[in-house]
Design a protein that fits this description.
Structural class: alpha/beta
Shape: elongated
Distance between the termini: 74 Å
Number of helices: 8
Strand content: 5-15%
Helix content: 25-40%
Order of helices and strands: HHHHEEEHEHEHEHE
Strand order of the largest sheet: 4-3-5-6-7
CATH architecture of the largest domain: 3-Layer(aba) Sandwich
Oligomer: single chain
Largest sheet: 5 strands, mixed
């Protein structure tokens, strides 16, 4: 009996099915049961549907990149926001991740440009300034006309809005960037605290985000 207990549990699924289940199970928020349901859904789907999903995933990895100006997700050198001449190019809202940018865009209360840091400072996790795109915020101000590292349209930014999540790490990142911007001729503001401390921008509703943008405060003094 002890010998039977010690044996490794083997899957009753064919290897190809188990591989798909394991792949889904490795995704955030997908448990074993959900992974099994997704795998069996694909088994029932037509070959065209399954190939469409596979090709979409491949295109995601092959075609999507970071905008060379703001680091938003893009399928070309510049994202759709940076190439839009209707945007206010003198204003840059700094966020942590592309999903924060999307949440703010859906609120419809901001018509300027963005800068995505791709994270936040977290010394305990070993994340320092060199691991983020903080330096590129500064080059957009210092050399806006530079086509490779400057600001969209070559316009000099006049305001930097800190739209970081109201957490300990987000506040620390905002203070670090505000200090770097202190010697530069730009207005520095931050989103109003209609966003709850410890909350996440991506989870806030449109009204809260819109109010936070409209009531943003200066970082001076």
């Amino acid at each position: 009996m002890a010998k039977t207990k010690g044996r490794m549990e083997r899957s009753s699924y064919p290897n190809a099915v188990q591989r798909v289940i394991d792949s889904f199970n490795a995704l955030p928020g997908i448990g074993k049961r959900s992974a099994e349901r997704l795998a069996f859904h694909l088994l029932k789907a037509s070959s065209e549907e399954a190939e469409g999903l596979a090709n979409a995933v491949l295109d995601l990895k092959r075609l999507v990149r970071h905008c060379q100006v703001c680091f938003n997700l893009a399928d070309d050198d510049l994202c759709s926001i940076c190439v839009d001449e209707r945007r206010d190019r003198e204003s840059i809202l700094v966020v942590e991740q592309p999903k924060d940018l999307l949440a703010i865009e859906q609120a419809g209360a901001y018509r300027g440009l963005y800068h995505v840091l791709l994270g936040r400072l977290s010394p305990l996790d070993g994340v320092g300034p060199e691991d983020l795109t903080l330096d590129r915020v500064l080059t957009r101000i210092d050399t806006p006309e530079d086509p490779s590292v400057g600001n969209a349209g070559g316009v000099a930014p006049q305001e930097i809005i800190l739209g970081l999540n109201p957490t300990l790490e987000g506040d620390g990142t905002g203070l670090y960037l505000a200090e770097q911007l202190r010697t530069r001729n730009v207005r520095v503001s931050r989103l109003a605290r209609g966003l709850p401390t410890g909350g996440q921008i991506e989870l806030a509703n449109r009204a809260v985000i819109a109010e936070a943008i409209e009531a943003r405060r200066s970082m001076e003094g």
